[in-house]
Amino acid sequence: MKLSPDERWNLIDSIADQVVTYGKYRHTLKDAIGELTVKPMTGIPIAIAVLYGFWSVFGSFAGTLCTDGFFVKLFDGYWLPWLQVVFPGEGSWLYSILIDAGGMTNGEFILSDNCFEAFGVLTSGLFVAIGVVLPAIVIFYLMLTLLEDIGYMPRLAVLIDTVLHRIGLHGYAIVPTILSLGCNVPAVTATRILETRKQRFIMMTLLAIFIPCGAQLGIMEEVIPDLIGYVLLYLVIGYFIFGFILNKIVPGRSPEILIDVPPYQKPMMANVRRKLWMRVSSFFKVAVPFVLLGCVVVNVLYLAGFIQWLGDILAPVFVGWFGVPKETAGPLVAAFLRKDLAVAQLSVIEMTQYQMLSAVVLVSIYFPCVATFAMMLKEGWKELIGSVAVLAVVVFLYGGIIHLIGKLIGVA
Amino acid sequence: MKILLMGHPNVGKSVFFNRLTGANVIESNYSGTTVDYTCGCMSLDGKEVEVVDVPGTFSLDPKDKAEEVAVAMLEEAKDTKDAYVICVVDSSKLERGLYLAMQIIEEGYSVIIALNMDDVAEDKNIEIDNQKLEQILGVPVVSTIAIENIGISNVISRLKDAKPVDVEDIAVRGAGAA
């Protein structure tokens, strides 16, 4: 026999009356902190402080302490020079791909003097993966895990709910959004907590286009520390503008939600440790092969003359429409495999500050990396095609707008 | 034999799963951490038992994709002989948890109820008479604090007492004293 919902609730009420006794409710310190962080007056300043703190720790730990303080010295000072000497066949194809493509100056072959320029699999590839991305990902996930286990995320969701409703989402969309700042791949799966197809589509499209992953953030901190703020600003603005437009044109519903705000908890260290390990290791299983493969593919394409050819063909679009040098064609190819790699590559191309800014934004919003692409395909091919179509329009429009803004303020 | 862990979002199903199987699935303090199912194994009296961490769901009428996965998992278990459902309930929100538990009982599954987060209920000064609840429902009821590994072995040792219950009997016993 089955009950109707009403019968079921009545029965449960009657059972609960018999078995549950409510004592006097004590207002605990936990409750007080809980309320302070969720009421807008106090909650919003606290949220800003938390996110700012998150960002500062991220930048100083990953960028300043680990990468600049240790890995740059290790890789540029010892690893690269050592490999350049011991690896045989300087100037050969294999040498160019694995160690150092070098550069021709006055008809003379010159070796690179740092791991951004060398672009070999064993030099730049390893440097980007271990020296830049590893510390960024570890610290990002450590802080995210702490916020999660304490129970802060639902509070953030409550605070940002109104804003996200404007773009067809709701507060809980903050979860895939923040996860995406670590890696877009698990974030695509996390969109399942949104109720309707419309919401899932908007979320997936926005995160694939506008949210840079932890690896990319790490490398941007490293190579364009002065510009990263502007890059993020352009991405955040784009996230909301195109979210707003998508909300208007995508059919479907965006229902209200009730959020369950759990009590704060002391994080269990064993759980934090295990979660951190799982996330970092699963990230690297995806990331390292693609970083190394990306180096190989790009080097081969360079040596084969494909990149120069592509650059020439796309030059009118790149130079005329986006306002970036045609050499950025290479990094855009690499960006499909790994965005961190693409940013590293951009950093060694001669260009103005504003061109660099435009190029990095383009790399971010252009095609999601191949791992994200595969994940989106798993969630549904129709959505994927839709997202890619939106993406093409966004890249073209937004790239042009950024160029136009640069022209208007006189820097492009 | 197969054990499904079901319950509302953020009641600690994944914590249970990790403690039971020694596996690693992500646990967090917010709802919707598990959006896909995860299977693992534990051994019980020398036998291999499959344990499934089902995404959180408020009822058996799914509202989002994660809940669809949950309901599909439960349907699938219908064909398994010896399927048990550990229904994880937040002790401080008993009524809501019982709604899902009742739905699962009505579908004819062998259910055991884990009143988890006993510490939170205690904080809020909420007391539950487990024996009375067990007597009314006719299914085992065990208090747990999964995150601290308290009560989990009790749940397992009482699995053998779980059996399908006719909801009409519950209705009679439940209305009785009220």
Automatic annotation (TrEMBL), chain A:
GO terms for molecular function: ferrous iron transmembrane transporter activity. Signal peptide: none annotated. The chain crosses the membrane at residues 49-72, 118-147, 167-189, 201-221, 227-246, 283-307, 356-377, 384-406. Pfam families: FeoB_C, Gate. Keywords: Membrane, Transmembrane, Transmembrane helix. It comes from the Archaea. One of its GO terms (cellular component) is plasma membrane. The keyword Membrane applies. Residues 132-219, 285-379 form the Nucleoside transporter/FeoB GTPase Gate domain. Residues 234-279 form the Ferrous iron transport protein B C-terminal domain. PANTHER family: FE(2+) TRANSPORTER FEOB, FERROUS IRON TRANSPORT PROTEIN B. This is Nucleoside recognition.
UniProtKB/TrEMBL annotation, chain B:
InterPro entries: FeoB_GTPase, G_FEOB_dom, GTP-bd, P-loop_NTPase, Small_GTP-bd. It holds the Pfam family FeoB_N. GO terms for cellular component: plasma membrane. This is Fe(2+) transporter FeoB. Residues 1-165 form the FeoB-type G domain. PROSITE patterns: G_FEOB. It comes from Candidatus Argoarchaeum ethanivorans. One of its GO terms (molecular function) is GTP binding.
